[in-house]
Amino acid sequence: MKKLKNENIYNDFFDEDRQEEMRNMFLEIGKKGIYKSFKKNEIIKIDNNDNFYIVMEGKIKQSIYSKEGEEKILYILQPGEIFGEMEYFCGGDSHFINGIIEPSTISIINKNIMENILDKDSHIYKYIIHSITRKFRILMFQMANMTFSDSYGKVADTLIRLSSQESNGDRNVNMVNERLTHEEIAKLIGCSRVSVTRALNEFKKKQIIDIKMGKIIIKDEEALAKYVKWK
Hints:
Elements lengths: L15 H15 L3 E5 L4 E2 L6 E15 L5 E7 L4 E2 L1 H6 L6 E14 H10 L3 H25 L2 H15 L9 E2 L5 H8 L3 H13 L3 E4 L2 E4 L2 H5 L6
Antiparallel strand pairs: 1-6, 2-6, 3-4, 3-5, 3-6, 7-9, 8-9
């Protein structure tokens, strides 16, 4: 029997209702900040630790780079998700590079405004902790996948996880809502673009996935999950 989205193996870790509640809360908070728009491929520079950042529109990636310029994408942020929280609460520099995947608008909330918001409603800390915990889980699963899986397993696991941690508006469709290039998937999982293309073509040939309008639809999650080596 083919698995539907509500049976996704990652759902226990990325509950859709809780994620939507978190995103809606941050979108509401974002209305109190200063909006700034960016074009595709621009870089968002975090100049100090006194601001809190919320994605209002578009998609943003947080990456780290090697000295040779190789990129590893850690997170892809969608509207209602936050960044700069580590610098805001802990100081220092996370060394993340915040890049624009598609035209995006962010809300920049000054520390004085954010502290006032938190003083009036300490319940918001729950959503901040949720966001931080969620990012930790993403990194944990990425590390396990990169350590134990071959290239096919890396692609399969990442597709299943992304379909769970994103919102696509239809709970009956198991789909990766991001329109990711093969190069971007490669930078997420730590293998070559050629390996990603080979895996996707294999999954499509076996009717495990389909690709429509740049979005990957998982047709048979049970078959896809068999490629995953680390669970």
